Each structure stands twice: as structure tokens, then as C-alpha cells.
Amino acid sequence: xxxxxxxxxxxxxxxxxxxxxxxxxxxxxxxxxxxxxxxxxxxxxxxxxxxxxxxxxxxxxxxxxxxxxxxxxxxxxxxxxxxxxxxxxxxxxxxxxxxxxxxxxxxxxxxxxxxxxxxxxxxxxxxxxxxxxxxxxxxxxxxxxxxxxxxxxxxxxxxxxxxxxxxxxxxxxxxxxxxxxxxxxxxxxxxxxxxxxxxxxxxxxxxxxxxxxxxxxxxxxxxxxxxxxxxxxxxxxxxxxxxxxxxxxxxxxxxxxxxxxxxxxxxxxxxxxxxxxxxxxxxxxxxxxxxxxxxxxxxxxxxxxxxxxxxxxxxxxxxxxxxxxxxxxxxxxxxxxxxxxxxxxxxxxxxxxxxxxxxxxxxxxxxxxxxxxxxxxxxxxxxxxxxxxxxxxxxxxxxxxxxxxxxxxxxxxxxxxxxxxxxxx
Length: 425
Prior knowledge:
By secondary structure, the chain is mainly beta. About 10% of the residues lie in helices and about 55% in strands. It is built from 3 helices and 30 strands. The chain has helices at about 1-30, 210-215, 220-235; strands at about 35-45, 50-60, 65-75, 75-90, 100-105, 110-120, 130-140, 145-155, 155-160, 165-170, 175-185, 190-205, 245, 255, 260-265, 265-270, 275-280, 290, 295-300, 305-315, 320-330, 335, 345, 355, 360, 365-370, 380-385, 385-390, 395-405, 410-425. The strands form 9 sheets. An 8-stranded antiparallel β-barrel has the order 1-2-3-4-5-8-11-12. The longest helix is centred in the N-terminal third of the chain and has 30 residues, at about 1-30. It is elongated and about 100 Å long. The N and C termini lie far apart (about 130 Å).
């Protein structure tokens, strides 16, 4: 009798131990996060401020994830967090191969604002009456939207350690895919550059170091997103990575001869004030300087691509120092290069075709005639594409203005007044 009771108690204890081990293994696994470093390569588009890189963080078992993008903007590199903006999930192919998929659709269109007004009247005799009237308005706001999709084989065995348990799981060490982002907004508040689209490739690489940090400090998804944003901006959000590093990537935003240029280099980590300088034997494009605060500014005077290295030093003792090489292209100012006056023509004789040309173009160039009072092409002469063609039907001296539009990126426009003399036979 006692033996059977002892055996029953032992079996119950064993079942409880198995259940406990199962719960200990399952709960920490569900709470662990995986961090991927992102890299973008633009392949096509116009008027865009392309994504450069950043981080993607999600539960290691799959689920809703968040992005922290770095994006090239008008004033340099901006850090753009998108909380709960993506998903990480596992998929199995027809051949039984396990893949991980990162997917996102970011952007929004509506903002709700409302007003509520009311009146309340009453007497002290115990009667109280009131009415409330209100109106709610919905404003639609156009913002950039983007689609992101990347896949990768589950080819990496990763071990996670928590205070309760140590477990291993298979992740994709690299995911690759395509991106497209678009917006209908004006660019730089310019009526001549409306909307943008950017297409490209993106790659996610497993970041063992940052994965370890967010799990070591037991951060949830929101806390990990804040930490990664602080990591990219250099802010003291979440656990601070002391490693001094340069965030800005190469190549830098292009410049144009004779046009003011300004770009802020960005760093993160380190201690105290960060100081920027040019590496020994490095030079910036003519007309530009680098301040100790990391601002590259000036007015370029020479066209071409310049490669140079910069140093970043922090305020610790002894100081940390890091460096990075950059390339910066200065373009010739976009202009119509065809000389004026144009070759003379003869009345009633087919005109020798003139092909218009430009300097400094970056994309497809289109030409048009600008309507100006007192100006016109000679009768019988027209602009077809980039060619001035036709048979003049009246003699005289004619002035007219041609506009050239460069699709870019970046987009540009230039005008030039031409003179064409038509002689009598």
C-alpha cells in the first residue's frame, strides 16, 4: 500500500517537473527579441529621399516588429522610427525548406481632429437640464508610404540565455528583398517637384551584439525600438552603447558648382563632446569646409568626385577615435550649352536642323518653348523634341526662349534666349 502511494507521488512530481520545464522554456522564448541591421541600395526613382539603413526588431519566434530607418533628407540624415510597422514570420516551401519573411507596409493618410461645444442650464430647485452639440472633422493628410518584403533561409542556430533557461532556435542570418516607397507631397515645398518614388533592394543582417543588449536588459518591443533610435541619433535612450561610431554613410548628397552646400555628419556613442576633423592628407571638394561639429558647408567651385576620410573623436580620456571614408560628387550646373545665335536660315529653304544640348544633366532632358511677349520662333520653324527644324517662311531676326527640364534626380530646369536670323534668298 505504502509502495503504491510512494510511486503515485513520484509520478505526480515527475509530471509537475516536466510541465515546469516546458513553461520555463516557452515563456522566455516568447519574450526574446532578434535585431537585424538594415541596408538599402536604391535602384530607381525620382525626387526621392531614399532610405539608407537602420534596424528591424521583432520577437525571435515571429510576430509584430518595429523599424528604425535612417533616411537621407534635405538637411542630412534623419532617423525615422516606425513602431509596430512590420512583421517577422516563418514560412515553409513546397520542398520543406524553412524560410523567414520580413514584411512591412508603412505610411498613413488620416488625422482626426474634433471640436465639442455645449451649454448647460439649471436651477437650484433640483431641476438641471443641458445640451451638448459637437462636430468632428476628419482631415486627410498625404504622407509617404512604402512596401518592404525580404526573405531568407533559416540557416543560423542562435542560442539565447535568460535567467531561467538557455535555449536555441534557428533564424535567418540574412534576409534580402525589394522595397518601394512613394509620396504625392511636394518636395522641399517646390511646385516644380511634386511627388516621389524610390525603388531598391534591402538586406537585413542579424546583429548579434544588439540582439544581446536588448535581451540582456529585458527590453520589450517598444523599449528596444527606443533604444535603437537612441543608438542611431546618439541620444541616451535605453542602455548606451559606448562604442564611438560614424552613422552617416557614403556617398554623400551630391553638390552643384555655384550652389550653396550644407550637410551634417552624424555620429553616435562615445563620451562627452564629439569632434570632427579631416584625416591627414584628405581634402574636401574645392569651396567646402568641415567644421569641428561635423558640418560640411560652402559653395563648390570645381566639378568631379572627391574621396576623403574624416575622423571622429570623443571627450573621454584617453579619447576614442574612429574614421570613415566618403565620396562626394560635385556636378556641373545644369544649363543649356547650345550657343546663340543659331546658324542663320534662308526664307523658303529647309533649315539645317539644330540639336539642342545641355551640361550637367542627371536624367532625361525635355525641351519646350517659353511664351514671352515680343518673342517667337520664325514662322515655319518648330521645336520637335530637342531639334529645331522646319522651313522658314519669312525673313527677319527672331528671338525666343527655350526651357530645358532635367528629370534628375535631383530634378533641375534651365532657360536660354536664342537668336535666329532668316535671310532673304
